[in-house]
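Input record (Table S2, row 132):
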Amino acid sequence: MPETIYVNSTRKTQFIDITAQVEEIVRKSNIENGLCLVYVPHTTAAVTINENADPSVPEDILNILNQVIPWEAGYKHLEGNSPAHIKASLIGSSVQVMVEKLHLVLGTWQGIFFCEFDGPRHRKVFVKVMGI
Ligand code: ZN
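Output record (zinc ion complex):
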């Protein structure tokens, strides 16, 4: 079974840095070298890797996504959250990171972000570490 990270978003759209929680799962896995899959089992949320040093970066990404995919655009989906579904598909439901010596191999400025597009909600992120 995959490990689960529980995320509670507090805004309609929000990037939440989950790098530390993923790193902790990798450390406890006892899998020295391999691949870590981070997977979001939701249709209105996503996961991405980007800069976590300057908080303006995720803010800018969200602002532009919200401009490109407006809240109102004659969508047909009756639930009323089509923009969230579209953003989730654009960003994607998984990322993979190499694991070396029980650590994620990330660039200096990289972090793993859970992307909320229809919050606030209680969410899950599945993490699977595979030895290679
Ligand atoms: Zn929907």
